[in-house]
Every structure is written in structure tokens, then in C-alpha cells.
Specification:
The protein is of the alpha+beta class. The protein is built from 9 helices and 17 strands. An 8-stranded mixed sheet has the order 1-2-12-9-14-7-6-3. The chain has a 4-stranded antiparallel sheet with strand order 8-13-10-11, with no helix packed on it.
Length: 365
Amino acid sequence: MAVLQVPHHEPAPPTKADLDYADLPIIDLSKAATQSGRQGLAAEVRDALVNHGFFYVINHGYTPEQQSRMLDIGDVPFSQTSDEEKNTYIGNIKETGSYQGYKLRQYWVIDNGVRDQIEHYNINHDVTRRQHPETIRPFIPEIEAFAKHNHLNVLHPILRILALILELPEETFVNMHNFCRPSRGETYVRFMKYHPRSEDDELKTKNVWMKGHTDIGTVSILYSQPVSALQILTKDGTWKWVRHVENALIINTGDALEFLSGGFFKPTIHRVVQPPEDQRTYTRLGLYYFCVTDDDVKLTPLKDSPVLQRVGITSRFDEKDAPTMEQWRKGRTSVYGLTDEKKMEKKGNGAQVELVNGIPVTYYN
């Protein structure tokens, strides 16, 4: 079958700046093909998540050529779609608590009245869940294949390893993350484009493009790309850059996994800042696969875990108040970037706290 033509997105060259990079572990996912291989990876992944909250994945089954093709497709919603059509397919984020469709630029408030210069287009893994712009429709089969690869060949092996770490049956988390039509949850593909900002905006926000935050779901999958801007907050309280590794995935965990694991897997705060000087004229285009459990999963600790029975459970809420995945994702999504900063509780080190479903959520500028 003929490949549909699409304008090529040329990535920026890697930065030559001397940045203070986080020393993140690299996990070879090809070893997860066997049960013994997953057992061997369990200790590596546990240490990576306990010490850093982030790790790289290599040998994940998606080639550099496939990634380049998906980046070309990922730019179509932005560079090949009119503003009129974008507004037709804008997501009703605040009312629905869902990112499906477009989030356009200047929707979020970053700091001191400055709004974001980030646009993204989000597609549920059930690509039939809603209509898409005409420019994107020809590429929906390829996007669906991309979602399926991430779900079955990346997410599920990682979930099996996480279950082994907690000494639970291997399919414990997999059974909460179904890939089906109609969809039972909100796991989705995101194409995301960051645009350069004015010097005035940079000064007012101290160069922060997206506040420090944790992710909503269980596992987040980011395809490494060359524009340096992602930073993680380390255990010693310093921000470190995440290095670009060609054709690697960057994996981190979110709130939902923290809740299910009784605090064993704590999400790491991360943010996006202005790129180094030699990359500041480039846009930053990214491919993501954000994973959540099925909507009806109640986010209570998995008490059958022998590990949790040994180390104990910590939680941000009483078990009787535990939200479902649907309640948590809708609660966080509907308010993110919209809450009046004056109504947030201020903490040290630039931290701000708001309550979502009665549960504290911390952001960092």
C-alpha cells in the first residue's frame, strides 16, 4: 500500500550547551520478552523508580524511521491545519475533564499572568471515540497502530515488571489497562508542540514553560527528542536536565500508580523550561503516550502485595475517600493551569498546593 505523503518535520540539532544532566538508568526492554527476563529487569526498574522516578527504555521495537514518520504525522495537527478547523475540534477540557481534541496556545496560566505557548492534539487509543480534523483523518490508521504498539509492546511489559516488583501476579496491572473498542478509559496519544516565547514572558516566568508537576496516570511514555527542556526535581532538591538519547523512550510514573502501590512508586516532579540558547529558535515537537487505568478502577492500595505488607502503606487520602481513575483524571485535568494562584496554598521553594477531590496536588514554578 502506498505511503501517504506528509511534509517532513526536521528535528533541531542536539544542544552543545554544558547542562547539568540527571544520570538516569537505561532499561533494555527486549529482555522483557520472557518471564525470566522480566524478573531480571525488576530490580533495575525498582531502583530506577525509587531513586529517580524516571528511566530510559531502549530496544522497544519502534525504529528511528517509524519515529521520524510519526513526528511528521504529529506535526500535521499544527502546521497543516487551519485555525478555524483547530477551533472546531477544540477539547472541552474544563467541562469534561478530558484532553481529547485540541488544547490551543494560551489556555494555561504559567505565572504572573503569562499564558502558555503550547498546543497539543490528543487522540484516545480508541481512535473512533471522536471525530478528527480532515487533515488528520488519512493518518488515523497509522496513529492507531502507534497507540497499539505503545500499549501492548511498551506499557504492558512495564506493567508486568511493576507487578513483579510488588510480588503480585504479573497481569495485575495489565488487567487494569485494557486496549479495546469502545475504550474503557482515557489512555491516549498526544502530539505536543512548544513554541518560542517573548523575552518578557521568559522574565515573568523565570523561564518556566510548564510548572513542575506530577502526571495524572500510571505510566507516561515520551519519545526522546533533541530540544532540551525537560527537567526533573531530584531528591536533593535540585533541578536536573533530561538528556536526549536517540530513539529511546523516557518513562515516568504518575499519581495513579502511587495510589495503587500505597506510596511505593512515588511520582517525580518534572517541568519544562526554556531550551538552551542554541535551540531557542526551534519549536519542540513531541510524541507521548499517557496511560491511565480503566475508568472504573478504584485507586486503593493493592494490599495483597507482600512487599506492601512488609514496608507499609502511605497514602494521600483515607481509603474510604479513594477516587476512581475517572474521578481523579477528570478532577486534575479540569483545573490544571486554570486555578487562581492567589487561592493556592504557598509553600517554600516556589511550591503551590491545590486540592483536587480533597487530595493535595503540588506544583512548582
